[in-house]
Amino acid sequence: MAALFDYSAQLLEGAALTLELAFTSLCFGLLLGLAGAAAKMSALSWLRQSAHLVSNILRGIPEFLILLICYFGLSNLINTHFAGTLTLSPFAGGVVALALVFGAYASEVFRGAFLAVPKGQLEAARSYGLSRWQIFWCVQLPQAWRICLPSLNNMWQNLLKDTSLVSIVGLEDMLRKANIAAQFTKQPFVFYAAVAVIYLLLLAVSNPAFAYFEKRANRGYASPA
């Protein structure tokens, strides 16, 4: 336990970077999910088919492999075209990979949520003269958000755990800090168990947060019997 105390500051520093990676990926993933859902519901058949194809490809490839492709593939592409003037950090590569996968799954969640909004409400909004943007922002998005929150909670939990994959490309996150400490002290169980506890604590905090968001989103709706 003394060794764990000695490395506690580094583990907490890694945990902070893990959270930063998760939240950044979440923000970009939500935007990609909304864009993907809009493309899947587009009136243009080629756009719908392309969005479904990209989503199926991203969901069909292991996330670890997508991370390797994004980091090493993009790094090679940047070095080839920019002669080393630009570099891709492990953090940026992790955000790209995690956001792409999260966005692929979120696009289906958002698409189903938008389709669940009663069409009568959309017709009523049009009859009041609301623009398409006003209908989306004031009618569709609030109701779709309420519907998809439970699924987004599950996806957030998976995203938070998947951040551990990025340590393989050199990101100094919580797991990599634990790896270094375990190799130096020869106590892998202690440090890996500590990382597992930290992940559980982060998820334990996330659940009440999403429960609060769901409660606010369900204001004005009758509770199920």
TrEMBL record:
Q: Write the protein's name.
A: ABC transporter permease subunit
Topological category with respect to the lipid bilayer: Multi-pass membrane protein
Q: Name the PANTHER family on file.
A: CATIONIC AMINO ACID TRANSPORTER, MEMBRANE COMPONENT (PTHR30133)
Alphabetized UniProt keyword annotations: Cell inner membrane, Cell membrane, Membrane, Transmembrane, Transmembrane helix, Transport
The record's annotation in NCBIfam families points to:
HEQRo_perm_3TM
Similarity comment: Belongs to the binding-protein-dependent transport system permease family. HisMQ subfamily.
- Localisation: Cell inner membrane; Cell membrane
Q: Does the keyword Repeat apply?
A: no
Q: Which Gene3D superfamilies match?
A: MetI-like
For this protein, the record's Pfam families field holds: BPD_transp_1 (PF00528)
| Major site of localization recorded for this protein | membrane
Residues spanning the membrane: 15-39, 51-74, 86-106, 189-213
Q: Which residues form the ABC transmembrane type-1 domain?
A: 15-210
